[in-house]
Specification:
The complex is a heterodimer of chains A (about 300) and B (about 350).
Chain A: H1 2-6, H2 14-39, H3 42-59, H4 61-64, H5 99-134, H6 139-152, H7 156-165, H8 171-197, H9 201-208, H10 213-249, H11 261-269, H12 276-304
Chain B: H1 2-28, H2 34-39, H3 45-54, H4 61-73, H5 87-122, H6 127-141, H7 144-158, H8 182-188, H9 192-229, H10 232-240, H11 244-281, H12 287-296, H13 300-328, H14 330-333
The chains are: A mainly alpha (about 300), B mainly alpha (about 350).
Chain lengths: ~300, ~350
């Protein structure tokens, strides 16, 4: 759709003008159809709803949180360790801070981490995958794939822990650590697709017509890899947030007093079972986010599939 | 045929070399002087220099790497700055504990996952399938440390039938060191009580560890079985009048297991990763807990040894999985043979 629009030129033939107009009229139709496909599975709407609510809670945390000041270095021992009630929906922790406000604030860090990591990982990973696939069999491709193999020989969690361990524990550094362990998965995914698309007739004909390498890579091959990339990105938002929570769980993420989901779970684990709410609510929040992105990912897969 | 396998093993060796370089680089780009950090700021300069010489830190970086690899090949990873013991000794003590959990977890994952997958393929689109689907979704989306916390709450306090901390109860003495795995050592030395106790301690950590992979295995098995059900060769078997059960297990199940098995390598690796957190929660003295402690204390020798060992384990698991796939898939088994 996008590609055709870019070709709109001042001196078009009448035939082409009607074509462009058709496309413009069809744009709303396109969105409607995409929504129809996405919503054909009700669970994907549930996923979208979960993620939207979590994102809104995170964004508007300073306005809607019942106790916005509780996310910082705040101590109120008088109201410490209260169980969930009307005043504190998720109870308070051992410092008397409202858990609901803290969980809402932690959503910020979680989403920031998801977006930040994917923003770097997807372009780098996909680019390397495109090159490795298109130049399959050449030295550069083998080189990229071997490097990818090395990174894939360690579970992402362990590699991220390792990288995190040598840096100062901050949100930003844990994002770097996850980025380092996450890009090979995109390279692997795009490599396979790029290698098979390289053999398609339209790529061969573009080569024969003398198209440049960058045209073939980005205009011919890349657009055909986009739908799995988008699907994987939606799913990965959940996994990256989960990995970030795992890092902060062992104390290698955002440092206290700033709330992070993993830190809250591990802090609360010390007070089980009496103060169960301190760790269970953040744990449920992690589950909900991952569940939301998973459901949404299924919907996006349906939406982008070419089956009518 | 042999040539293909040799080439594969060669690739894995290459990966191992690359991995060792990667780990070495990560361990050495750490800011600050490791020798100074190990001894603290108030140690006299001479002692620091002596330790530097001992750790080969005064030599050029590539010689350091060669020495490190040489040592590693002999099982000598230097001294741990944290426990003040040889890293190899620490690993000998902690690795078997992690193996115990991961092995049990792997078994649960494979058999549980495939069984659930078969059931839900057999009864696809019934309520049973729906229930299993919901369970697998929950399994996939909840990280094992969340399961660990939930199980800790349930079995630690509400329903104390399984112990949830450590490897053995206080009252029971450790079995003598044979393999390092308490269950096997106990069996070898013939004390059933110790075996029972050690096994009970493994159940909850292993279960909370395996659920994610189990759910994934179930889903993949189901989808590949339902996908294969409509294939022509199954139809042909039906037309020949081959009994339903024979078709299901002999002709449908075997090829459908290939996708499940091929992701198992990744899942088992993920188990080792997740074990890092689960062992922490259940206070289980395994390699992962040791590794985390090393990471928090920036104990380089220990970190690099732990990570390298996990990398080796992953590569070995990968080779085993490739052999299993070759057994299952005639296209791969017969590759390279003249037709």
């Amino acid at each position: 759709m996008k590609k055709k629009k870019m070709n709109v030129d001042m001196n078009l033939s009448p035939n082409e003008i009607t074509k462009t107009l058709n496309i413009k009229r069809n744009k709303s139709e396109f969105i409607r159809r995409a929504w129809y496909k996405f919503s054909s599975n009700h669970m994907s709407i549930v996923g979208l709803a979960i993620i939207s609510i979590a994102a809104l809670l995170g964004i508007f945390e300073p306005i809607i949180a019942p106790y916005p000041e509780h996310v910082g270095p705040f101590v109120d021992f008088a109201s410490a360790c209260q169980s969930p009630s009307i005043i504190h929906w998720m109870g308070t922790d051992n410092f008397g801070r409202d858990m609901l406000s803290r969980v809402m604030f932690a959503f910020r860090g979680a989403f920031l981490m998801g977006f930040g990591v994917l923003l770097v990982v997807v372009p780098i990973g996909s680019f390397l995958g495109l090159i490795a696939g298109y130049f399959k069999g050449k030295t550069i491709s083998t080189f990229i794939l071997r490097i990818t193999d090395i990174f894939l020989a360690l579970p992402p969690l362990i590699l991220a822990l390792c990288v995190c361990a040598i840096m100062r524990p901050t949100l930003f550094n844990s994002m770097i650590a996850i980025t380092i362990s996450w890009w090979p998965w995109y390279t692997r995914l795009i490599y396979g697709m790029s290698a098979s698309i390289s053999n398609e007739m339209y790529v061969k004909s573009a080569e024969l017509l003398g198209a440049s390498k960058s045209h073939i890579l980005f205009k011919e091959i890349l657009p055909n890899c986009l739908s799995p990339i988008f699907t994987k990105m939606t799913l990965d938002m959940g996994w990256v947030i989960l990995l970030g929570a795992s890092l902060s769980f062992v104390g290698l993420g955002e440092q206290p007093p700033i709330p992070a989901l993993g830190t809250m779970v591990s802090d609360g684990a010390k007070y089980l079972p009496e103060l169960w709410w301190i760790s269970i609510f953040p744990a449920l929040a992690i589950m909900m986010i991952v569940l939301g992105f998973n459901l949404m990912g299924d919907g996006i897969k349906d939406m982008l599939s070419s089956e009518e | 045929m042999a040539w293909i396998w040799l080439k594969k093993i060669g690739t894995y060796l290459l990966v191992l070399v690359g991995l060792s370089i990667l780990i070495f680089t990560i361990a050495r780009i750490i800011p600050g002087d490791p020798a100074r950090m190990a001894l603290g700021p108030r140690t006299p300069e001479e002692t620091v220099q002596k330790l530097k010489q001992e750790m080969n830190l005064d030599k050029p970086i590539y010689i350091q790497y060669v020495l490190w690899v040489k040592g590693g090949l002999h099982g000598d990873f230097g001294k741990s700055l944290m426990t003040r013991r040889l890293v190899s000794e620490d690993i000998r003590e902690y690795l078997p504990a992690t193996f115990e959990i991961v092995i049990i977890s792997t078994f649960l994952m494979i058999f549980g996952g495939i069984t659930l997958g078969i059931i839900s393929a057999k009864f696809s689109n019934t309520w049973l399938d729906g229930v299993i689907r919901v369970i697998s979704y929950l399994g996939i989306v909840s990280p094992s440390f969340v399961w660990a916390i939930i199980f800790l709450l349930i079995f630690g306090y509400l329903l104390p039938i399984f112990p949830v901390s450590g490897r053995l109860s206080m009252s029971i003495t450790e079995p003598s060191f044979i393999t390092g795995m308490f269950t096997i050592d106990a069996l070898l030395s013939g004390s059933i009580d110790t075996f029972k106790d050690a096994f009970m301690h493994l159940v909850i950590p292993a279960v909370s560890l395996c659920l994610g992979g189990l759910a994934q295995a179930a889903r993949i098995t189901r989808s590949s079985m339902t996908g294969n059900m409509t294939k022509d060769y199954i139809l042909a078997q039906n037309a020949y009048g081959v009994p339903e059960g024979v078709i299901f297990f002999k002709y449908l199940l075997k090829p459908s297991l290939i996708p499940t098995v091929s992701i198992l390598a990744l899942d088992i690796a993920a188990l080792f990763g997740q074990a890092f957190l689960v062992e922490l929660i259940f206070n289980f003295p395994g390699l992962s807990k040791y590794g985390i402690q090393a990471m928090l204390n920036k104990d380089l020798n220990a970190i690099s040894a732990v990570v390298l060992i996990l990398g080796c384990v992953f590569i070995i698991v990968n080779i085993i999985i490739e052999i299993i796939i070759a057994i299952l898939d005639p296209r791969i088994r017969l590759m390279g043979r003249s037709v």
